[in-house]
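User: Let's play a game. I give you a shape written as tokens, and you guess the letters that built it. Ready? Here's round one.
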């Protein structure tokens, strides 16, 4: 079962061939072989690259 690479939750929607959306943290991520690219979804629907260093901090804070 696929998990969100940002929050680790499983409320994932499939939006493309290898493209998924997390309902919890409202990010899209694209499986690209071994790597996963994560994008923020802006209010106008465009994607911007997710700041993974920020995500790591959030993960540590939100754990537990
Ligand atoms: Zn998430």
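Assistant: Ready! My guess for every position:
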């Amino acid at each position: 079962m696929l998990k969100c690479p940002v929050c680790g939750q499983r409320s994932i929607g499939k939006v493309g061939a290898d493209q998924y959306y997390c309902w919890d943290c409202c990010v899209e991520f694209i499986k690209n072989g071994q790597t996963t690219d994560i994008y923020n979804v802006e209010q106008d629907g465009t994607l911007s690259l997710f700041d993974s260093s920020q995500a790591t901090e959030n993960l540590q804070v939100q754990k537990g």
